[in-house]
C-alpha cells in the first residue's frame, strides 16, 4: 500500500477539521476492544459535510478506477461504510451492495444485501481499518458467495502491524486515502497538537495494546 502524500495529508486535514478524528492525549478514549487511545475516529461524520464527502467520494472512486478499472460491483461494509460506499458506486455508475457483520436472524436471513452474482468482480469500501477483523469478515462473506474480491479501499487506517498481517493472511489488497503517520504529520505541521502531545501520540502507536 503506497499512499499519495498530497491526498493523504488533505484527507487528514479535512477529517481533523470536522472532528471526524479527535486527538486527545490528555483525555484518552476507551475503544470497544478495551484499548485506551488518544485518538478516536468516526468517519461517518463527513457525510454531513457535502464538500468533504465529495472529496472523499472522488478520491476513492479515482483509486478504484486506477487500481482495478471498473469492477462489477461496489460493496460497503456495514454500517460505517454504507454511506460512502453508495457515493463511490454512484460516482462510478456501478451497482452497490453491503455486507452485514452476520446474517440476519429473520426474513431472508441475508448477510449480503443487494444483488450479487457468482463470479462478479467486487471492490470493498471501508471507512476505517484498525485490526481489520470486521473488514475481512465481510470479504469472507463475499467469497462464500463466489465473488471475486479484487481489493479493499478505506478512508483511514491506524497502520497496526496486526492489520497488515491479517490482510496478508487473507490475501486481500488494502489501499487507503490516509493513515496515522500522515495524520500526525498534518496535525503537527498545522499546530493542531503541541510538541508534548506529539510524543504521546507516537508512543501510543508503537504499542497501543499496552498504552495507559
UniProtKB/TrEMBL annotation:
Q: Name one GO molecular function term.
A: magnesium ion binding
Keywords in alphabetical order: Glycosyltransferase, Magnesium, Membrane, Pyrimidine biosynthesis, Transferase, Transmembrane, Transmembrane helix
For this protein, the parts annotated as crossing the membrane are 73-99
Q: Tell me the route in metabolism or biology where this protein functions.
A: Pyrimidine metabolism; UMP biosynthesis via de novo pathway; UMP from orotate: step 1/2
Sequence positions that bind orotate = 130
Report the CDD domains cross-referenced here.
PRTases_typeI
Question: What is this protein identified as?
Answer: Orotate phosphoribosyltransferase
Its GO biological process annotations read: 'de novo' UMP biosynthetic process; pyrimidine nucleobase biosynthetic process
Q: Name the NCBIfam families for this protein.
A: pyrE
Group of enzyme by EC: transferase
Work out whether the entry's keyword set contains Ligase: no
Amino acid at each position: 500500500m503506497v499512499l499519495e502524500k498530497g491526498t493523504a495529508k488533505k484527507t487528514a486535514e479535512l477529517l481533523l477539521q470536522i472532528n471526524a478524528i479527535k486527538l486527545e492525549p490528555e483525555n484518552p478514549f476507551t475503544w470497544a476492544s478495551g484499548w485506551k487511545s488518544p485518538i478516536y475516529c468516526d468517519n461517518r461524520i463527513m457525510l454531513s459535510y457535502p464538500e468533504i464527502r465529495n472529496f472523499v467520494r472522488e478520491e476513492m472512486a479515482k483509486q478504484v478506477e486506477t487500481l482495478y478499472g471498473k469492477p462489477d460491483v461496489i460493496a460497503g461494509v456495514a454500517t460505517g461504510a454504507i454511506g460512502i460506499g453508495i457515493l463511490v458506486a454512484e460516482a462510478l455508475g456501478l451497482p452497490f451492495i453491503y455486507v452485514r457483520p452476520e446474517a440476519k436472524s429473520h426474513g431472508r436471513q441475508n448477510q449480503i444485501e443487494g444483488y450479487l452474482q457468482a463470479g462478479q468482480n467486487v471492490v470493498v469500501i471501508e471507512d476505517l481499518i484498525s485490526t481489520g477483523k470486521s473488514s475481512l469478515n465481510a470479504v469472507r462473506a463475499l467469497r462464500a458467495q463466489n465473488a471475486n474480491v479484487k481489493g479493499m479501499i478505506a478512508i483511514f487506517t491506524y497502520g497496526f502491524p496486526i492489520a497488515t498481517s491479517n490482510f496478508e493472511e487473507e490475501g486481500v489488497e488494502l489501499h487507503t486515502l490516509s493513515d496515522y503517520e500522515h495524520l500526525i504529520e498534518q496535525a503537527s505541521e498545522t499546530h493542531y497538537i503541541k510538541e508534548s502531545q506529539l510524543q504521546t501520540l507516537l508512543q501510543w502507536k508503537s504499542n497501543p495494546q499496552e498504552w495507559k
